[in-house]
Design a protein that fits this description.
Length: 138
């Protein structure tokens, strides 16, 4: 009985380690942040810069998705330019939620051309998480 419990426990631990390894690429650390407030881009970009230093050659992809009513502020190109320049230097991709753009009547042509529009930001975030991205929603 003791041996079967021990074997079962070892099997569960092995399965857990295998599952985690499949969801995380040890070669690169990839990150995604979903935010509903444009001012949060500043601390998000600072975080990306620090992680890039900390991770070194293990730093992979870093994406920020802007969702919700704040997408209206993406049309302020002067405000967005400082974030875009800093994101570019840090190899951070800024994305806009197409669902939010539609809901709040923002023409995708009015947001900076450096930003990609993803159809559904929440779905896109989940898809990246399934690929092993570290994720946080703000």
């Amino acid at each position: 009985m003791k041996n079967s419990i021990l074997v079962f426990t070892a099997f569960i631990m092995l399965f857990s380690i295998t599952t985690n390894a499949q969801n995380h690429n040890p070669e690169k650390n990839n990150y995604v942040v979903l935010t509903k407030k444009i001012p949060q881009l500043q601390p998000i970009l600072i975080t990306a810069e620090e992680l890039k230093k900390e991770d070194g050659h293990h730093f992979g992809d870093f994406q920020v998705i802007v969702c919700g009513q704040t997408v209206k502020g993406l049309t302020d190109k002067e405000q967005m330019q400082k974030f875009i320049q800093r994101a570019k230097k840090a190899n951070v991709a800024l994305k806009a939620c197409g669902f939010s753009l539609n809901k709040f009547g923002v023409d995708p042509k009015e947001i900076p051309s450096e930003m990609e529009v993803v159809e559904n930001g929440i779905l896109y975030d989940f898809q990246l998480q399934k690929k092993g991205y570290f994720s946080i929603d703000l």
